[in-house]
Write a structure and sequence with these properties.
10 helices, alpha+beta, Methane Monooxygenase Hydroxylase, Chain G, domain 1, 3-stranded antiparallel beta sheet
Amino acid sequence: MIVIEYYENVFDAIQVVEHDKKDKTVIHKFHGVGGVGHEMVRFLQPVRALGNIEDWLLSLLQNMQQTMKDHARSCAAGVAEVISDLSKLRSLVDNSIAQFALLAVQLMWSYETQTTLEQCRANKIIMKENTQRQIQVMAEMSSWCLQDLKTSVNRKKIETLVTVHLHQRDIAQELMQLVRIKKVQDANDFDWLKQVRFYYRPNAWDEVSDNGATIISITDVDFNYQYEYLGAKERLAITPLSRSKCEETRNTGFSIPRRSSERHVKESMRLLHNDESWICRKTRIAREFESTVSWCLHDGSRFSDH
């Protein structure tokens, strides 16, 4: 194994790469941070560390993205099985690295809640059933925290799932109440669209390849998942302030073209607040973000338009 001092400065969570024992120019896998029990990921295709360093580092980045996309595709396939049989969730989580275990929970919640909202007019009890389902998922994952998870990295992974799904469970309960009082009627209502939603679309394409895409949606904006390895990291609790104010403003702002007219900008921001002062303030904030931020980290996912 060759340890390169600056890998953590180039990539967010790669600590070391592992070279072939016979041919040191061939890289087979990379190791994440975390010490004992850290994650190890094998590249789909070996990377050759030959020529200019910027060239083979770019090759390493592209190979990492292709490898991560393959993991995302497997994750989406596993979610389809868990939706019909919750007992398979543990094996899916155990067999996935942290960021795709989290993605699996987010994909499942988005699909189940979206489907429920599409059927809520015809089925009066389906929202209650979805809420009970999310409570059941929460109870299942919480029970794992009481078990011996062997390593601190694995415990961090499980605790992250619980932290994120706690928010998702609360949203399911909130939507159930809004449907009950007829403030939400289908999946096109803003109270659902303002949530961060995750979808895997097998017939779509992205910058990595044309065989499927993982999409992150908020309001009327879609971002492509960027497939950068993120490691096993803790997440802060999601609060109404961070969700309702920061996320909606920031992500809607990123969708506004740089040379949009003031009228177009204000109409877009009006989705968030009807108060004119809020619109003007958030327009300025959104434009500042758009002009200065090339990428950002959101709940463990890289967005290309940031």
